[in-house]
Amino acid sequence: MALDARADPYPVVFHEFTHLFIEANLAAGPLWFAEGLAEYYSSFNVSDDGKHANVGRVVARHVLLLRNRWVPLDAVLSAGHGVRARLLTSVVPPRRPG
Ligand SMILES: [Zn+2]
Q1: d(CA 87, CA 98)
Q2: 18 alpha carbon – ligand 1 mean position (Å)
Q3: Total-model pTM
Q4: Span 39-80, pLDDT tens digits
Q5: For helices 31-42 and 10-25, what crossing angle results, to 10°?
Q6: E strands within 1-98?
Q7: Dist. CA 31 → ligand 1 center (Å)
Q8: Nearest CA-CA partner of 79 in 33, 39, 46
């Protein structure tokens, strides 16, 4: 995973921490579950007043990606941990309403 030194590091930290938590506490599961949960928790943040924690926010880069590319559902559900690169390159354009 490439990091931009100017970017907020916390989404990556929470994403990777979620992977560690999953690996330490749950039986091995499908890639879509591990990555989905890790991305869900990557959006964790605390409000400026420190009174509220937020999680599950929309990730802007996901919205931008999904506007231009879709991965077939069967490819997502059948992906294993060794096929990330193939999964990311086997995308199809999203269907546009007709
Ligand atoms: Zn991940």
Answers
A1: 27
A2: 8
A3: 0.70
A4: 999 999 999 999 999 999 998 888 998 898 888 889 888 888
A5: 140
A6: 45-46, 53-54
A7: 9
A8: 33
